[in-house]
Amino acid sequence: MSPPQAFADESFHEDPSGGFYVLAAAVLPITRHAELREVMLDVRGGRRSSKLHWYPMDHQEKLDVVKRVADFDELHVVTIGTPVRPKRQERSRALCLQRLVVELHGVGVDTLVAEARQADRSGPGSPAATPFSSR
What we know:
135 residues; five-stranded mixed beta sheet; 31% helix; globular
């Protein structure tokens, strides 16, 4: 069996009365990457976007995506979340990322792929593969 790798994505909502930050990682063996890539391209359908975005989908499309992903053997999702105070997104991100790495290392993951942040932290950059180790 090949070692698992993780692919992360983030979401946050700043709100004075209850914001949140969520970091999720899809974990699967390297040997299954190509197969899952085909599934994800298929559920994206005819959209021109290079990414699969949840919000523009109608209810049935969302159900179809959830079913296809849930039916994929050996795919696991690890999700970490925390409340976020206004203007404290980076602190919440750091806390979630730290905990996510601990959880992923615990299940044998040694590579986490995530979008890199731009130097000014104003938005996403290019994907970055980051090997990590526990201390």
